[in-house]
Amino acid sequence: MHEEILKHLFKQYFKEDCLAVIQLPQAGSDRIYFRLKGAENSAIATYGKDTKENETFIHHTKHFHQKFITVPQVYIASEDKKYYLQQDLGDTSLYSIIKQEGISENVIKHLKEVLQQLTYLQIRGAEHFNFDTCYPIQEFNRSSMFWDLNSFKYYFARVARVHFSEIDLNEDFHKLCDYLLDEPNQYFMFRDCQSRNVMIHEDKPYFIDYQGGRKGPLQYDVASLLWQAGAKIPYDVREELFDYYSKKVSALILINKEEFKERYYGFVLIRMLQVLGAYGFRGLIEKRSHFIESIIPALENVKWFLENIKLKIDLLELTSVLQQLIVSDAFKVEKFDGSEKPLKIVVNSFSYKRGIPEDTSGNGGGFVFDCRGLHNPGRYEPYKQHTGKDQHVIEFLEAKSKVKEFLESVYKVIDINIQDYLARDFENLQINFGCTGGQHRSVYCAEQTAKYIKEKYNIDVKLKHIERELQGQFI
Q: What separation in angstroms does the CA of 461 have from each of 29, 200, 280, 335?
């Protein structure tokens, strides 16, 4: 269904046929992204069930374009606003560069470019901006802050079983809100300004995923960028970059730099709490490995903050909670490492000509998924000598079969058993993918499923391509 609608939109806008629809890896949201390719053009397509959120992104993007702020162009949207096409900015995010290079001179150059663009987004972008279009909330007010603070309390602190007085902690939350609400808040607040949401295209930074933006103060976004846990920017570099940002802000509006920086650290604190709440929900509750892995560096930020920053307000109960968290045994990496569990998962690809693989564990259970309903690249000469691990076979399957929809259903089914097996300390689970020759479709599905399990559960998966091994081709 997605493919037909997206191809129609592509043809309608570009006046050429869409030759490939490739689903992209899903991020933290429920939106689904695709790359569409034609002979001359490409685009990124988004499918989102929340039409109000989609309309918000489209509105914000058109406004920022008029202000010459570097955001992707939105080309066209479906009538029901569930689908839209936007400019293809490639696959290189600032975060991917940081992971590859560390905090190099090149990365610092990009960060300064981002900070300069951020000031225009926040200040010039707020001029004549209709904040009534913001969704799900129009302003970073006390209610907005308490959503984040309560998420931290219930999804992280409670789950970690730290001790606190509900009344005293709530009073500290109000005190922190009062302190932050004294800061001018008539600007556009990106809300999630971090390096994953900055694409580097033609050596320029472009902002993405700002549909959650709202009216708010300036310092929150720079705190989000410079204190991103996974980026691990050295603390002295953070100071240097914040001073650079302050200079760019003061070139556009009048600020008291000393007060501006003092209150900045209050926004650093509330952003850290928001992040821990998100990691608690996505990681500790939903068990998504990427969020679990980010908990330790996030708590390292908290530790440095407690040791080096003194706010003008006393937050005794909140400080106690944070001090308990940074020394808690609950957040040692191995605590959430699925490899400590006894569960061993075997993922096989096989040929139906030889039959379904035997479960040698003696468990007698597991899954068998039939891939023969997917379009077979093995029918075509260019693919016959290759496998589901080769890039052009992968592109064939993702563009010309419903393999992504097939695997989405597979993941929903196997998640139920994996989570139950982990909870009950079961030891073995076998997952099999079969096709006619055991070479293309089953190999691709086995590879993708093994990768999915490793990333989500951090479990060591044994991957076997039975047909290839029988032929002496260890792929």
A: 26, 34, 25, 19
- Give yes or no for residue 336 having a pLDDT over 50: no
Contacts of 303 (CB under 8 A, 6+ apart): 326
Q: How far apart are CA 221 and CA 268, in angstroms?
A: 9
Tokens of 414: 């196997």
Superfamily the domain 2-86 falls into:
Phosphorylase Kinase; domain 1 (3.30.200.20)
> What does the chain come to in residues?
475
CA 437 vs CA 215, 270, 286, 347, 351: distances in Å: 58, 55, 37, 17, 5
The token pair that represents 220 in the structure block: 């929150």
Residues 179-191: tens digit of each pLDDT: 999 999 999 999 9
Instruction: Supply the CATH classification number for the domain 94-336.
Output: 3.90.1200.10
Residues spanned by CATH 3.30.200.20 within the chain?
A: 2-86
Domain(s) labelled CATH 3.90.1200.10 in the chain stretch across 94-336
pLDDT in tens, 385-409: 999 999 989 999 999 999 999 999 9
Q: What pLDDT was estimated at residue 342?
A: 79
Instruction: Name the strands in the sheet holding 74-77, side by side, starting at the edge strand that comes first in the sequence.
Output: 20-23, 32-37, 42-47, 83-86, 74-77
pTM of the model: 0.72
Residue 353 contacts residue 436 (beta carbons within 8 Å) = yes
Sheet with 367-370: list strands edge to edge: 367-370, 428-435, 344-351, 461-465
| Pairwise CA distance, residues 377 & 59, whole Å | 42
Task: Name 461's bridge partners.
Answer: 345
Which of the two residues, 39 and 294, has the higher pLDDT score? 39
Please write the tens of the pLDDT for every residue from 157-205. 999 999 999 999 999 999 999 999 999 999 999 999 999 999 999 999 9
Judge contact between 370 and 434, C-beta under 8 A: yes
Residue 340: predicted pLDDT: 54
